[in-house]
Amino acid sequence: MAVLTSYEPASYHKVDGGEHIEATAVGSVETTSIEQLPIVISNAQVAQKAWASLPLVQRQQYVVKAYQQLHAVQDELATLIGQEMGKDYRRATYEVGGTLQNAGYFASEIGDALATEQVDNRTELQYRPLGVVAVISPWNYPIAMANNLLMPALIAGNSVILKPSEQTPLVAELFINTLNKVLPQHVLQVVQGDKALGQALVAADINMVAFTGSMAAGKHIMANAASGLKRLVMELGGNDPMIVMAGANMDAAVRFAVASSFENAGQMCTSTERVYVDQQIADEFEQKVVALASRYRVGAWDAANVNIGPIVNPTQHQKVLEQLQDATAKGASILLGSDHYELPFIQPTVVTDITPKMLLEREETFGPVVAISRFSDIDEAISRANNSHYGLAAVVFGGQGAKAVAEQLEAGMVGVNQGAGSGNAPWVGAKQSGFGFHGTAAGHRQFAQVRVMSY
């Protein structure tokens, strides 16, 4: 029996003169072999037929009752999130608690979106199940991100196969096993494994892939889903810009820049990755950013008063270091921190004078770094903000003219003097940050087949 072992990020360290890396195991799960997939999919196909035959309201009630079972394991889920991906206990508790508290409302919203609509007295729009949906979820928000895709897929009448990140297998196992205390057998299954398993799942006899992860993986999924014309909903990361105009509320802009760059140790798809600040206010802005960033506390998930946890694994840790070192080699200045940190942490870091030649500006960092550049012309700032294959979110802080600047930004979600995105709007990525979207009625309906029925 092959197993997948989960390691605690806070315990990563180098041994033998730095030649090897060791970490403490949190636990392990049995992996799903590629040879087992046909059985999993066959079970999902059979279960889906019976599940789809139930009335929409009954499927909705099943799902709500299943989510109620999670209250008994809420603390255990939060602890596992901290142990497996390093998120501090307070934030992990918010993630799990928020998912549970919103489950009833979310299910009701989905049910309303998928209810049959009367077009005229002889025609109606029906939202029918697609079949088997593969949900491939990330490690940075292992409950919340999976939930955003699982629930609409299930209520729409599909069966679901969840392939979680190999970084958080224990969270997924407990999450799915708890839901399955109520759900009919094989309506929801979890498969555990690495990238090869995910690729095999995408290529298998399924009907839809709902994915959150990297742009490179998204392109691979799209190519492999093409032969079956499988439905896709994909969020593929971001390199989110922030523009700070001369008329901005300075303290509000500083708070947002730091909080958005450091949240979840910077391991967030809508983390602010690039800050373009008007040179007229740049000195004050940078000083205040450094002062606020200096107050952030770094530590393990269960340490007191921690704001920034460990980086999830050595590969991601090294990627952040490479970007910082590339930036300093090309002329950037570090105002706080350094470009070298030992595993597993990256201390709060503030870098200025970034340029388009630097990896720190061109690529998604996924680390606790505030990367700043000054501009003298707003058109220059807009051009640099848009100069990316990504287009998930963007923000503008400013007074008069801020909305006009925001209108020119190429992103699926744009915020003016606030963060991008809203609970009352879908989660949308533009350009290569997304394909399809989820959330609200329009997003929920992407998990269903529209059928026009005329009588």
From TrEMBL:
<protein>
    <submittedName>
        <fullName>Aldehyde dehydrogenase family protein</fullName>
        <ecNumber>1.2.1.3</ecNumber>
    </submittedName>
</protein>
<feature type="active site">
    <location>
        <position position="235"/>
    </location>
</feature>
<dbReference type="InterPro" id="IPR029510">
    <property type="entry name" value="Ald_DH_CS_GLU"/>
</dbReference>
<dbReference type="Pfam" id="PF00171">
    <property type="entry name" value="Aldedh"/>
</dbReference>
<keyword id="KW-0560">Oxidoreductase</keyword>
<dbReference type="InterPro" id="IPR015590">
    <property type="entry name" value="Aldehyde_DH_dom"/>
</dbReference>
<dbReference type="InterPro" id="IPR016162">
    <property type="entry name" value="Ald_DH_N"/>
</dbReference>
<dbReference type="InterPro" id="IPR016163">
    <property type="entry name" value="Ald_DH_C"/>
</dbReference>
<dbReference type="InterPro" id="IPR016161">
    <property type="entry name" value="Ald_DH/histidinol_DH"/>
</dbReference>
<comment type="similarity">
    <text>Belongs to the aldehyde dehydrogenase family.</text>
</comment>
<feature type="domain" description="Aldehyde dehydrogenase">
    <location>
        <begin position="21"/>
        <end position="451"/>
    </location>
</feature>
<dbReference type="GO" id="GO:0004029">
    <property type="term" value="F:aldehyde dehydrogenase (NAD+) activity"/>
</dbReference>
